[in-house]
Amino acid sequence: MSFSYSPQFFTHFPKYHAPHLKPGEEHKDPGDEIRVQCLSSCGAWLTEYNNCKRRIESRTDGKGDCKGQFEELAQCQDHCVAHEIFHHVK
Question: Taking the model in full, what pTM does it have?
């Protein structure tokens, strides 16, 4: 036996509220704070990326990009975040 689909079925669900949060309090992603902190440990890659951006901005022909430097910076940051994020998981 099958039931017909009713779009009103989904309108009656109460909004989910995480039990560890107070009413009206928004959930904060701990990864956002950790990413900022991890930039300090990836300072060499950040400097390399910023230097590349300056070089590209100073060019007049519009060629070039900093994808490689950005990927190295993101990889360093992700590696740092991966070690720290699980301390915030319950």
Answer: 0.67
